[in-house]
């Protein structure tokens, strides 16, 4: 007959109640930590997506003197200076009368199609400008002293009415003398006298 008693080596013992309770408490603590980490990660993800959503919808605002203006989002190639046609330059017989130097700004597409003070429709692609006192139709050489670039513009509007600025250029004029990236800049003015 066989012996039915088991030796200590082959006996399987169940964990005690205390061991089972300890293991259960460890699992419960680990579960809480895991859920807390997943929740924190989800909160950070939502916060980042909210910031990106707001940033993509927001327009940049630049302070201009006493007011503000939005900056239109354009590809960088739109800001590169473009060569102007030869007929944009005045005849060499014209003499120039130096005027007050100061800060220039530009106004662009937000005024496209609107009437200027001269009555003509504003086109940001033309070489025009606004001045407070010069007669309409006056031709002015605007020179960027930093680069030496200059352009001749025709006065067809009144302004600028921001702080100490002396002239508001069309976007095409500002681009041709390298002011489009800065938005404003120091310029020298000379009235063309025929």
Write up this protein.
This protein is an alpha+beta fold and 194 residues long. 24% of the residues lie in helices and 27% in strands. It contains two helices and nine strands; from the N terminus they run αββββββββαβ. The protein has helices at residues 17-57, 171-176; strands at residues 60-64, 67-71, 95-98, 102-107, 128-130, 139-143, 150-157, 165-170, 184-193. The strands form two sheets. Strands 4-8-5-7-6-9 form a six-stranded mixed barrel. A two-stranded antiparallel ribbon has the order 1-2. Strand 1 and strand 2 (67-71) form a beta hairpin. The longest helix has 41 residues, at 17-57. The N and C termini lie far apart (135 Å).
SSE order and pairing:
Blueprint: H1 17-57, E1 60-64, E2 67-71, E3 95-98, E4 102-107, E5 128-130, E6 139-143, E7 150-157, E8 165-170, H2 171-176, E9 184-193
Parallel strand pairs: 4-8, 5-7
Antiparallel strand pairs: 1-2, 3-9, 4-9, 5-8, 6-7, 6-9
Quick structural summary:
This protein has helices at 17-57, 171-176, and strands at 60-64, 67-71, 95-98, 102-107, 128-130, 139-143, 150-157, 165-170, 184-193. The protein has 194 residues and is an alpha+beta fold.
Number of strands: 9
* Secondary-structure element string: HEEEEEEEEHE
Strand order of the largest sheet: 4-8-5-7-6-9
- What structural category do the secondary elements indicate? alpha+beta
- How many H/I helical runs? 2
Shape: rod-shaped
Measured as a percent range, the helix fraction is: 10-25%
The quaternary structure here is single chain
Give the radius of gyration.
36 Å
- Strand coverage percent: 25-35%
Mean pLDDT: 80
* Unreliable residue stretches: none
Report how far the terminal alpha carbons are from each other. 135 Å
